[in-house]
Amino acid sequence: MKKIAAIALLSMGALLAACGKNETAQAPAAAPAPAAITKIVVGLDDNFPPMGFRDDKNQLVGFDIDMAREAARRMGVEVEFKPIDWSAKEAELSGKRVDALWNGLTITEERKQNIGFTAPYMENHQIIVVPASSAIKTRADLAGKTVGAQDGSSAVDAVKKDDAVFKSFKEFKTFGDNVTALMDLSTGRLDAVVVDEVVGRYYVAKKPQDYAVLEDNFGTEEYGVGVRKDDTALQGRLDTALGEMKKDGAAAKIAEQWFGKNIVK
Questions:
Q1: How far is residue 41's CA from residue 33's CA, in Å, rounded to a whole number?
Q2: Which of 12, 110, 182, 222 has the greatest number of beta carbons closer than 10 A?
Q3: Short-list 175, 225, 222, 221, CA closest to 72
Q4: pLDDT band at 262 (very low <50, low <70, confident <90, very high)
Q5: Which residues of 165-186 are buried (b: 16+ CB within 10 A; e: fewer)?
């Protein structure tokens, strides 16, 4: 009887040991670590001087181009610039064809629904550019006039936000880029163009005899870098790089090269 009991105990021990091995084998595997960021693809409008545009050699240059390159260098990653249809920027970002939108992108509550933003790095206004000989002096003077802006730009949002003024226009036209809008202004097909201050003043400075900038405008806004809302890792690293660039003066140096003064927030 003792021998039989001993055999039974040994069998039970083997069975328990086997169960223990099975439990160990079935333990869930640890979640894989997120892939390290080695490259970022920046989506931009390549006809948006001085933020991002092509020079005489067809090379991409601009304030935001230089800012992005410096940030990427500090992050230790490669940066690729990809010109996109700016009016489809959110689709390009969500479709993962680009990783970031960095080209004078205004931070708005509406855009925050679909885009994650870095801290603001620049402040901007939506200015009104008119012919130098124009009698238009204020937003109210735009009543009955034909006004233009770039399609998909924050200028469109800013104008439509002022419902009373917007409804007073004779016509509101949108263009593929600001250059075309300003060309229509110079030829008399438009009475005014609403545009980002950094862009408008860049062109006005080239032809001060042709254009005038009104003191009145369609509001103040802030620029930020846009990423996918779930890409918090990239957002955090960009915030760190931009913060360092502001702190050590690198951002101010880039701004001075393009604007003649430090406009970084």
A1: 22
A2: 182
A3: 225
A4: confident
A5: bbebbeebeebebbbebbebbe
